[in-house]
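Listing S7. Sequence submitted for prediction.
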Amino acid sequence: MLCSYSYNSGELGRENLQSLIFSPCKLQNLQSFCGTRGFLGFNFHSQKQRINPKGARVFPGFKLQCHSTTVVLPHKNSSRKRKKYGGVLPSILRALESGNNVEDTLNSCRKLSPKEHTVILKEQSSWERILRVFEWIKSQEDYVPNVIHYNVVLRVLGRAQKWDELRLCWIEMAKNGVLPTNNTYSMLVDVYGKAGLVKEAILWIKHMKLRGVFPDEVTMNTVVQVLKDAREFDWADRFYKDWCVGKVELGDLDLESVADLGYEMGSAPVSLKHFLSTELFKIGGRRPISKIMDSSNTDGSARKPRLTATYNTLIDLYGKAGRMKDAADVFAEMLKLGVAVDAITFNTMIHTCGSHGDLSEAEALLTKMEERGISPNTKTYNIFLSLYADAGNIDAALKCYRKIRKVGLFPDVVTHRAVLHVLCERNMIEEVETVIAEMKRSGARVHEHSIPVVIRMYVNEGLLDKAKLFLEEHLLDDELSSKTRVAIIDVYAEKGLWAEAENVFFGKRDSGRKKDVVEYNVMVKAYGKAKLYDKAFSLFKGMRNHGTWPNESTYNSLIQMFSGGDLVDQARDILTEMQKMGFKPQCLTFGAVIACYARLGQLPDAVDVYEEMVRVGVKPNEVVYGSLINGFSETGNVEEALGYFRKMDEFGISANQIVLTSLIKAYSKVGCLEGAKTLYEGIKDLEGGPDIVASNSMINLYADLGLVSEAKLIFDDLRQKGRADGVSFATMMYLYKNLGMLDEAIDVADEMKQSGLLRDCASFNKVMACYVTNGQLIACGELLQEMITQRILPDTGTFKVMFTVLKKGGLSTEAVTQIESSYREGKPYARQAVITCVFSTVGLHAFALESCETFLKAEVALDSSVYNVTIYAYGMSGKIDKALKMFMKMQDEDLEPDLVTYINLAGCYGKAGMLEGLKRIYSQLKYREIEPNESLFKAIIDAYRSAKRHDLAELVSQEMKFAFDGKQHVHSESEHELDEPLSGL
């Protein structure tokens, strides 16, 4: 099993998709709620009503007042457009955007007012340019530093995650005597929070408190959003409620427990200690006491939010936390106070209902939204698209997608990502291609995160050319991020398509852009899936030369990959190198090496790795102990197995079914019935009871001890539960056959065949052996044909059964010896000749003749044994003319007829009534031109009888008695050759 961390394309396709659809603080939508359906009071059709103290009728839960005078905010277009400015501002902004010389552009202008300075700063999107513009503004003689300018610059620097530049700007602001305002702190909390630096964002509130600035509602709302997005729901709720009573209490907030999201967003990590030690919190003016008092609640009364955005955030918070009653109370309070509801409010409620499984209430909310004059926006339809898709109603989801344009709106990037994800997940190729074509016509591009999702769809359907073409088209427009490349490579890796994965990995990219370590890791995974271990190792060795160093995951993946492929020496070498590099292997990694050693029977090495694992402080788990116990159990070393079982107990690890089953196997190997029975009874008390391996081990133990009734009891229980497998049936056949209970053995064999459990060579061999022992040679031949039809190659055990069939079927000892010798020497067509001979012997002539045709087309020189088999097969099937042609061809190839040839020819002559041919062979035998042989005498006798010349048959019979002095040489074949103990149970 590989342990490389990688980005699954499905995960990447969905990454932040829910937050984009449902996050009011980002794209004015609501993120997917978590929690239980604890509150179900969203039904607009409920007959129950509640009367508030003022007499207004309100529906329970998230309800709109029937006669509400709540203000409705006008619908805002969410697309950001540059404001229209008069005077010289448009020309200045255009010049700054198109030119590089900021100073010359600004110097050429007339004297600008502070307000115009502010506009110019706000319209700069580049952090480098805004710093140059700000430096120019500050260089003007009459410039007076003001907090608005600093706020604008700090926001741009924060959004660009230029923390050092932000620090310098903050220090300068303090030196110039500019006091931070609520807007300053709100902005700082926002940019740090959105960068994933949640701890640092909250520390700005501590700084704010120390400087005597009480958060206003906007700042409070920003803090709640940051904590909410970090899933610190309780702290978000506490901060809001403290704010309502005029407090800001963060003293006991454990900042180290707050999860930073910065690593996921690509920002450089900032340690808490470093952040606190910088000038950021040592600098900043303190506000006058009078202003501190003015900004906080001094009369003891509870303050209430007044902004729609705050209530939307709170509803979102409680919804995500699963506190539906609190969310409903916030909405009711919003209506009670006359706070305006907007599209975001309705979007929030719609998603809340839908995500809790009540689409009918969500649809009712949409109706109410339109009744109150609030037009659904693109985000509204995005929410419904996602909700319908999650509910499996694809038609409704596509209808939402179509309706966006129908009502005069435009699908946005979230719409396209959502609809592509929905369709690709269900492999709806035609619909996906239609959506992509519509996007191209409207000038929209497929979002980068959707590319792996589309490629996965094509790969799942086997359309590799389309997947390649789609990727190439995208690469013409944009460079892929490392994260996206990883997801695409992983798509191919999961399907074992290493060449396609390799093309993406080595594909064209921007010059100077090196491959990320995660790309190497997932490429290693692709090679591992395809068992191309040399390529994986070569890639690992070469990655440093390209400026990328392996990480812990690289080593873990390689070690587990090599261990899984039984390349334990390479795995051990990399394990040693990993530790030298300062990495600590996972328990899973140590366990993979131990399991490999145990599987290969190298138990001393497995023990060495175990001891090393304990020495470096990695605690073994039940898998590690299971591997060791199973390894010693396979060798019958019960004491060692029990020793590790006791160590496992000392570490406080409970034994599972696998471990106990291994111990049963150990007891079974040494024939210790009582120990095995005790463990087996113990497994019965565990959830699920004994597995098939434990049950088969017990059946095998009972079989070895000849305890039929006990074995049958377990076997019958497995059959009744439908859990009996091929090993169960084979063991019972072995038991019955060894005890001479052939009828019972045949019954088990027939049931095994009817149950469809003949799936491998071993299972076929067991049933065929059972049939041979009982003399059912035709049934054995039929099974052999079925085995060949299923393209299961016969192994050594199969040929052993076939040679027994030939001996029992009456084939001469000389013929069996000759064909067996050719098989063991590996001569051309020897294996096929054995199979052909079996088919002829048991009377399945059609199958035998098919093989004969193969021999006739052979392009290599055939051995005389193959010619003999062909003559025998044609003769047995009555094709005498073909048999004689093969004899003539044999002579043409300068192969002299041997004893087996004469035996087969005698049979052919007898069936055809060709007495002259028989006389010729008999004459050669009589006059010692052919060495006297009992099998040949018998073949001639049988041939004369077949030709109805019993007189001649009697004559030859007398001659045979005289030749061998009346001694009879009877060949008997021990049937015990087939009675071998079952291994590998």
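Caption to Listing S7: primary sequence and predicted structure tokens for the chain studied. Residues 637 and 666 are 7 Å apart (CA to CA). The mean pLDDT is 81.
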